[in-house]
Amino acid sequence: MTGRAPDRALVDDWHVVVDRSWLTFGQLYRTKLFGAALQISPDVDGRARVSLSATGAVLPSVERYGLVFASVGRPARDVLDIPEARESDRLIVTGGSIGVGVSGLRAVENFLDLGHLPFVHADILGDEAHTEVEDYDVARAEDGGILVTNCRFFQPVASPSASGGIMADYAYRVFRPFTVGLYKTNPKQPDRRDFIALFVQPVDEERCVAHSLLAYVEDGLTAAGVRAFMQLIFAQDKPILENHVPKRLPLDPRAETPIRADKSSIAYRRWLSELGVTYGAIPA
Amino acid sequence: MQQDLRALWFPVASSGDLPLRHVYQGQLLGLEFAVWRADDGAVNVWENRCLHRGVRLSIGLNLGSELKCQYHGWRYANGDASCLYIPAHPANAPARTIRNRVYRSVERYGLIWSAIEPLAEPPVIPELETAEPLALRPMPVAAPASRVVEALRSYAARLGAEAVEPAAEVPPAGAFALRASWRRDGEVEAAAFFVQPTAARACVIRGLLLGDVAEAERVATLKAHNAALTALREEAEAADAREPDAAAAVEEAKIPLSPRVTTVAGGERAASGEAIRVRVARKWRVAADVVALRLEPISGALPPPAPGAHVDLHLPNGLVRQYSLTNGPAERDAYVVAVKREPQSRGGSAAVHDAVREGDLLAVSPPHDNFRLARGGGRHVLLAGGIGVTPLLAMAKALAATGRSFELHLFARSEEHAPFADDLGGLGASVQMHTGLDPTATGDCISAILADRADDAYVYVCGPAPMIEAAVARAEQAGWPDSAVHFEHFGNAKAVDDSTAFEVALARSAITVAIPAGRTITDVLREHGVSVPTSCEQGACGTCITTVLEGKPDHQDVFLSKAERASDACMTPCISRSLTPRLVLDL
Amino acid sequence: MLILHDYELSSEAYAARLMLGFLGLAHESRPVDVYPGAANEAPAFRRLSPLGRVPVLEDGGLALWDWQAILIHLAATYDESRRWLPQDPARAGAIAQWMAVGRELEDSSGLARRHLAMFVDADLPLAQERAHRLMRQMDEHLWFQEQAGQDWLVDGPHPTLADLAPFPAVMLSEEGGVDRRDYPAIRRWSERFRRTPGFVTMSGVFPAAPLG
């Protein structure tokens, strides 16, 4: 996929390029960001070093939450702050990075979508007897991004700690064009929310890597169990995502057919248009 | 020559590629198709992309009469690819304009033929009309179609046989079709090869062996040709890899992103609601005061109706009237409606009874699917009053065809006044006739029928307004919830009060309009360029249902249920008005 | 009690889960954090599976760490109908041949999938080319089987391990960039296989439309 230059807003920001645990001293990990080849390996002192394969130039990078963030420009702001990652009674673990052959923007939109839960995640996050998507709220967040609240959906197995179906309460926050978070009722402690962050790495316009951070309220869960659940769910979305035509996200509202249940994706596409994001998209 | 390819017919699949409940992924000139055979035998060639988010339909599920998208479960109808069901909003019928792009197709000679923008009719190849050709194994080749056609000219030599004559074109199949013949063991054999250009540098060779092949020889013959075509493929691919010939590459077709444009003749009209021209093929009496009309299309196919649907019939005297279709699922060639002579006719039923003759040309709208069967459900109770049997007959046929349990009760003045007695007889014991009952007796009969209620039971009522009101009331008394009782009025006999004036704002555009007394919301909006689909213009059929975002509607229709009216979340703007100074509609 | 050391995204583990499903065998499932945790490389796990492979089947005192060995063991021990691993010598060779193809598909198409999804090192174009060569052959074989009235890779009324072994890699091939649109006979075969009673899906494998 040949390079169109990414938009300034994307260039001057941080993007996850690898799960830190995947790096081994002495070995080179290769990936791409906005079509540019990167090489990553840990320094003698254990710090991840990210450089452009073509020139050897070292890129600014930050490690946080077990993930390595890098930038091909000059970031004006810090890596996203996740307060849940500081709460001591949570199991904080990366979910495992999965490569997907579609634009990262489509992956974010799929993460926001409720209508597919009874079909793609049948008998886990939804079932065919309960397909209706009730009205929910969408608003712009004060410090940028989109807030989606008041989503309710019947789920046979809402999370790794669920025993029996519940009406799950969902809320989403789209923090940045390629970063989105999900807040979900904890089945055992209804007043707490489990939190999952999805950091999508735009490999190029039609390929991405989905890195996830899981912050579950601790309750006898293991890292293996929590990761298995996340990967099971994401691997169900993967072939659907890879069978989108076109792979890039069309921003023209007339290009596809949104319905009332797609309020969040309508807002997301409109927001991307306003930000002038075109990388991985088909502008209106 | 390159531009012509979009106008030409090519085979895009073999009949054997479409087994029961399968979806085949095809391709032509760079465009992907989802090709599937419905249970009734009809073949569908559709753009391989669900309208919703563009997910490939070839990974979807062929459910026999519908294709179900793997992503959100949207369902598309066999035939016109209109969206029938959107699970995220199960109570709402999708707009008829949500339909996938359909490519014309025909099944002929064991092949499925299709074209991107055909100018002519599909090819009729005389030699294949009478023969029973043996289909060779289709051979995909990663080389441009034109190079493969060239390579096929020497096919006889590949078989180690002597060519009888030079390989020739196969009129009228035209481009990329070749007929080869050769002599083997003293016998003359021949084959027709159709090369399907799937992409710029890829194609599929679909060969048909002409002449008889003994059963004992069949597999050996197929293997021999498969080996010859495999060798051809390997050579063509190697040659193309060595020196890719830019000129030979086929120009791929490009379609615009918007999925709303259809290319089916008649499809565009149907998508925009334009009337379809039909001929009255038959007119006959089905009850004492009821005639039926069989309406066949002048050209193209009719959009298949959902059971319970109605159409607008444009009459010769300029009037437009709504009539329910009695069509069952297998009846796709014509629409059948029934018209009762109304004593107080405003001119519509009189025109049908007295003026319309067999052979006359009329026009119908595409079907409006507002009166629908519930999905699933264990028991369906159909209550018909006289001419109200028409939509319920369609529903009964659909339920019978899918083996679902139902009972149809027809209330009529007498046997002679009961329409379609023969069709009803064919449905067997599920139909009961109740004749000569007065209103009280009818009500008691209905109470008895509805006394026994299960959670997955539904009632459908159609007939004169007093009967519907009585049935709805008796159902409520017997504990049936609002959502389980479906009804359709044929007209709205209530007096309309249009004396209010108010404002209507449209949420999706920056328009606010003033609605004066004496004018309907839909009329005024139409003047401002916003067209809401309508049919009866009386608040009876539900075609114009619109979501209300703010304000309190003044419901004057007979279509909405009690709960819908109480919620004020929707209204029928063709007749209803506003109780508040301002209404905001989701338009 | 049978114990399966399992990983959700492993196509070889899926083969084992398919066999357990077809035979209706109760078993305890122990998830192994293969990715990104590399728990299969840990010393404790390698005492059970010396080459670090997943799935591993424990049956009483026996521990098997090769996926095809697991299929053969389950079929030989628990399949009373003798359908999945028929005893007749006439078909033994053919079944072994297609099981070998199944292994080669895991090592080509499966490798491409693991490379693109989970960043396992691989020569992607080579893996994809190998997968296409195998699937081209499989498609041709299946087309001629259909011509002879046969539904499966090896003659007989019922699928055998010859069908089960290549099935996971075939179904997940598109995740490795190996398209199946040129293999319509394989697509029909996979639909027949998915209708076999006891069939279970995995993430990325869709159930077939019911025949109604």
TrEMBL record, chain A:
The keyword Ubl conjugation does not apply. Signal peptide: none annotated. Gene3D superfamilies: Naphthalene 1,2-dioxygenase Alpha Subunit, Chain A, domain 1. SUPFAM superfamilies: Bet v1-like. Residues 107-275 form the Vanillate O-demethylase oxygenase-like C-terminal catalytic domain. It holds the Pfam family VanA_C. Keywords: Oxidoreductase. InterPro entries: VanA_C_cat (IPR044043). One of its GO terms (molecular function) is oxidoreductase activity. This is Vanillate O-demethylase oxygenase-like C-terminal catalytic domain-containing protein. It comes from Methylopila turkensis.
TrEMBL record, chain B:
Signal peptide: none annotated. Residues 273-374 form the FAD-binding FR-type domain. It comes from the Bacteria. Residues 9-114 form the Rieske domain. GO terms for molecular function: 2 iron, 2 sulfur cluster binding; metal ion binding; oxidoreductase activity. The keyword 4Fe-4S does not apply. Pfam families: Fer2, Rieske. Residues 502-587 form the 2Fe-2S ferredoxin-type domain. PROSITE patterns: 2FE2S_FER_1, 2FE2S_FER_2, FAD_FR, RIESKE. The keyword Flavoprotein applies. Keywords: 2Fe-2S, Flavoprotein, Iron, Iron-sulfur, Metal-binding, Oxidoreductase. PANTHER family: CARNITINE MONOOXYGENASE REDUCTASE SUBUNIT, NADH OXIDOREDUCTASE HCR. This is Ferredoxin. It comes from Methylopila turkensis. The lineage of its organism: Bacteria, Pseudomonadati, Pseudomonadota, Alphaproteobacteria, Hyphomicrobiales.
TrEMBL record, chain C:
Gene3D superfamilies: 1.20.1050.10, Glutaredoxin. Residues 1-82 form the GST N-terminal domain. It comes from the Bacteria. Residues 88-211 form the GST C-terminal domain. Signal peptide: none annotated. InterPro entries: Glutathione-S-Trfase_C-like, Glutathione-S-Trfase_C_sf, Glutathione_S-Trfase, Glutathione_S-Trfase_N, Thioredoxin-like_sf. This is Glutathione S-transferase.
